[in-house]
Amino acid sequence: MPIGEIRIEAGPAFSPAARLRVRGLNVLAQVSAQEKEKVSLALDKPLVDEIRAQFGGRALSTSINELLYAALAQEHLGELVDEMERETGAPFREASDRVLAQWFAQD
Q1: Looking at the predicted structure, is the pLDDT value of residue 5 above 70?
Q2: Quick one: 19 exposed, middle or buried, by C-beta within 10 A (0-12, 13-18, 19+)?
Q3: Is residue 78 part of a domain?
């Protein structure tokens, strides 16, 4: 049995970060080291303007690549949270309320 299958079967024995890596998400991956594929996209102009403003003079491809990696990481993290809730049950309501209050607190 390959090591990846062993890890997946182990499930809760691994930390959330390890479980994300098993799914192929290495949050420390070097974006520039990956093989590239040239694609053509049509994006909304306000979105492109905001990305250019936020990332300064960097190449648009690099900026969009990083944003897509971040979006995928967030999606995978959501899937992991769902999986953990199925295994252990939903968090206590009071804990959820505290986290949300801290998350949206005004500085």
Answers
A1: no
A2: buried
A3: yes
Q: How many structural domains are present in the chain?
A: 1
Given a contact cutoff of 8 angstroms between Cβ atoms, the answer to whether 87 and 11 are in contact is yes
Residue spans of alpha helices (H) in 15-107: 16-22, 45-55, 60-88, 93-103
**Does 68 score more than 60 pLDDT?**
yes
Q: Which residue has the tokens 């994006």?
A: 43
- The answer to whether the CB of 62 falls within 8 A of the CB of 33 is no
Over residues 22-42, the pLDDT tens digits come to 666 655 555 557 788 999 999
Dihedral sign for Cα 35, 38, 43, 46, please: positive
Q: Do 29 and 18 form a contact (C-beta atoms < 8 A)?
A: no
Give the structural domain span for 67: 3-31+41-103
